[in-house]
Design goal:
Elements lengths: L5 H13 L2 H7 L4 H15 L4 E4 L2 E4 L1 H28 L5 E7 L4 H14 L4 E7 L4 H7 L4 E5 L9 E13 L13 H5 L3 E4 L2 H9 L6 E4 L2 H9 L5 E4 L4 H6 L2 E3 L7 E10 L8 H17 L1
Parallel strand pairs: 3-4, 3-5, 7-8
Antiparallel strand pairs: 1-2, 5-11, 6-9, 6-10, 6-11
Length: about 300
C-alpha cells in the first residue's frame, strides 16, 4: 500500500504553480482547510517538509523540489490518460494520420505539432513523409486524416493553399559549374547530373524512358541535399531547407540565364470521410493555417 496519493501530489503541484493555498484551493473547488489537511498528511507520511512560507507565498523546500520534479511526469501522464479515456468515450480517435511532403519547412511543421500536443495530450500523431511524385497515389489511397502535399501535375488538388515553397538552383561552392562564364548556358548544365527527388516508381519509369543520363534521383530530400553537398551534381532545392548551407557559403546559387528560382504550392487537405466526431483533425488543420499566417 502506498503512503501517498496522486491527488495529494496534484494538490502540492497546484499550490506551487498558483503560489498560495487560497488560489490553489479556489482553482480546484476545495476549501483551504481541506487542501491544507491533504498536504499536511502528505508531508507527515513522508516524514519531511515539502513546503515553507516565504512572506505570502508557499515555496518548495529542497526536498520538495526534487520529489515534485520526479512526480510531475506521472501527473501529466495520468492527465493524458484521463483525457484519452474521455475522448474514447465520446467516440473520438486517439490518433491522427498526417501525411506531409518532405519539402514542408521542418521548423514550421514541428511548431504546429508542438502546439497541437499541448492542446490534445490524448491524441498521437502518426507522421508520414512523402515526395511530390507520390502525391496523386497517396491521395487516391485515402489512408491519411490530413495531408500537406505539393501540387503535382495538371490536376488541381482539392484543398486549401497553405504556402508556397521556393526552390533555388544551387551547387557546391567548389563545383566546376561555378567556374563557367555567367550566365550559365543550357549546354554547360547538360554536362553535369541534375539531382532530383523521385519515389521508387518514378525512378523506374525514368530508367525505362532513358532519362537517367541527365539526372540522378534520390527518394528523400535529405539525400538529395547531401548529394549536392558532395558535388555529385546541381539541383533545385527548397530554399528554407538549405538556408544554413547558403548562409555558410557551402552551397551557392547558380547564375542561370533564366529559371534560377522555382516555386511549388503546398496544399492542405482534410479527409472529410474521417472528420465527423473527430474535432482534433480540424484543430490540427486550423493550427497549420494559423502558424503559417503568423510566419508570413
Amino acid at each position: 500500500m502506498h503512503k501517498t496519493t496522486l491527488e495529494q501530489w496534484y494538490l502540492l503541484d497546484a499550490v506551487v504553480r498558483e503560489g498560495s493555498f487560497a488560489l490553489a484551493a479556489e482553482k480546484n473547488n476545495r476549501s483551504q482547510s481541506s487542501l491544507s489537511y491533504q498536504l499536511g498528511l502528505l508531508q507527515q507520511r513522508l516524514g519531511m517538509t515539502l513546503l515553507r512560507q516565504e512572506g505570502r507565498r508557499a515555496v518548495l523546500s529542497a526536498e520538495g523540489h526534487q520529489l515534485l520534479a520526479q512526480v510531475r511526469p506521472l501527473l501529466e501522464g495520468f492527465s493524458a490518460l484521463e483525457a484519452r479515456a474521455n475522448a474514447l468515450q465520446r467516440g473520438e480517435r486517439s490518433r491522427i494520420d498526417l501525411m506531409v511532403d518532405a519539402i514542408m519547412p521542418k521548423p514550421l511543421l514541428f511548431d504546429v505539432l508542438h502546439a497541437f500536443q499541448q492542446r490534445y495530450l490524448h491524441v498521437r500523431i502518426w507522421l508520414s513523409e512523402i515526395v511530390r511524385s507520390e502525391t496523386a497515389d497517396r491521395l487516391a489511397e485515402q489512408q491519411a486524416d490530413l495531408w500537406v502535399v505539393a501540387q503535382y501535375g495538371d490536376e488541381q488538388i482539392a484543398g486549401e493553399s497553405l504556402l508556397s515553397v521556393d526552390f533555388i538552383a544551387v551547387a557546391h561552392r567548389d563545383h566546376p559549374l561555378h567556374s563557367e562564364p555567367a550566365p550559365l548556358s543550357t549546354a554547360a548544365l547538360a554536362r553535369w547530373p541534375c539531382i532530383t527527388i523521385l519515389d521508387r516508381q518514378q525512378q523506374q519509369q525514368t530508367e525505362l524512358n532513358g532519362e537517367q543520363a541527365e539526372s540522378w534521383s534520390f527518394t528523400t530530400l535529405s539525400a538529395a541535399i547531401e548529394a549536392v553537398q558532395h558535388q555529385l551534381g546541381y539541383g533545385w532545392l527548397p530554399e528554407l531547407n538549405i538556408a544554413p548551407l547558403l548562409e555558410s557559403g557551402e552551397l551557392r546559387p547558380l547564375p542561370l540565364l533564366q529559371g534560377r528560382r522555382r516555386s511549388t504550392s503546398l496544399m492542405l487537405r482534410i479527409n472529410e470521410e474521417r472528420l465527423p466526431g473527430n474535432g482534433a483533425i480540424s484543430a490540427l488543420a486550423d493550427l497549420f493555417i494559423e502558424r503559417v499566417a503568423q510566419a508570413k
